[in-house]
Amino acid sequence: MEAEVSTPFELYPSVEGVIETAVRGWLAGFIFSALVSSFCSEQSARMTAMNSANKNAEEILESLKIQYNQVRQAAITQEITEVTSGVKAQKRKRKKEVS
Question: What is the model's pTM?
Fold first, then answer.
């Protein structure tokens, strides 16, 4: 059987000191966690905004590319029409001169 201890234990550091240190550490960790969370949230919002801007820019570029190609194709068609009309006019002119 074990003997009972009759003298009180002496703790070093004191219980109050341990609790005070633990609370300070917990509070510092809590504040640090809040700051890290805030920073990460801000960076995530920036990334989302930049991703949206990039997608919008790509859509605008695609739309402008289509418009440019349509204008270019219209100009090419116009030139082909003018050339063929000129050729027909020259043929008619030669026919009149020969006749």
Answer: 0.57
